[in-house]
Amino acid sequence: MLGRTILSVLLMTSLIITSGCWSRKELNELAVVMALGIDTHKDGYAVSAQVLNSSELATKSGGSIGSLPVVTYKSVGKTVPDALQRMLSMAPRMLYLSHVRVLVLGEDLARQGVSDVLDYISRNHQLRTDFFMLIAKNGNASEILEVVTPFEYIPANSLYSSILISEKKWAATGKVTLQQFVTELKQSGSDPILSGVQLNGSSAEGQSVENVKKISPSTLLQHAGLGVFKGDRLVGWLGEPPSKTVNYVLNRVESTVGYVSCPSGGIVGFTVNRADTSLDVMLSAENIPRFSVKMEIEADINSVQCPIDIYQPSAIEALERSIEDKYNDNIEKHVKDVQQRYGADIFALGEVLHRKYPQIWKTYRSHWGESFQSMSIDVHSHVAIRRIGSIIQPLNQEVDEK
Q1: pTM of the predicted model as reported, rounded to 2 decimal places
Q2: How far apart are CA 163 and CA 175, in angstroms?
Q3: Are 378 and 278 contacting, i.e. CB atoms less than 8 angstroms apart?
């Protein structure tokens, strides 16, 4: 009997102290934001929000009125939250930010500095930190979010997916999340990078659904290298080869392709299947750091467009040495170019020094940006060719022998 009394008291107490679903939000009360775009404006910030049109997305036939699955709202405010609040005068529902997949920043905003914008983005409890960040190269973020994209019904998902596949298979872009960007921004021994995206075609034509009804769409979104930051400000852009160098040094290359020239003319193409990079630093007698980049690369031959007998082991070894020389020369060249042009340590070499020699790092910490420009960096690569394909000799050579 006593046990039943105690159990009843505990149950009654739990009913009093448990809150239940007091903070629940029904889907029909929310406007789910899939992508955010932020640009500068004379009155503060111009914010664009790509909102999911759930009623259209739920129908297989495209909806009863045939509208698009997303709607982009725009508003201007002194701060980002001010602009989002003003957006409620147009949106019929409360904006819900927990499902944001992509944040696009206009180039003008990035060059002025992104700390103030990211303060709100990082502080807002609704926003997660695993969405991808991009810069609208030579344009505004609002233009990027207005393009109707093929394949993906929701443009934000198209951007998200294209970042994943290009970073995995091309190696000239980077999937940078908010958490990763803020971490690199706060570290004194590294500077952040962000991938760029730009319009390939007309902005006006890209806004029409007719854009994806053509075999060759008039307007597409195209990734455009890496943006170099010094602190929180964008200072320049890297093209395809330097962008690949950055990802190689940061050990972020999963797969990509390349080629080397043959001694007698023509080229041999190869596919990189594995690339492991390690960074180290040694001190001279005067305690001056000297950095080294060591790379282990496994590759397959994917194209032979020159007279070479790849059946011979010596020919494969010569190709491996040629690829190694190309990596060593190109990476050293691109690293020095970043050092001299921007003075931004996007390779996180300062962190390498900090971890290995913390006492020496203290002498460089306050002026690392200037010291980084004169640091010596050696590159040593080792390439192993694993496969040569399903045929041995070049096809054009076999045809000539007939």
Answers
A1: 0.88
A2: 6
A3: no
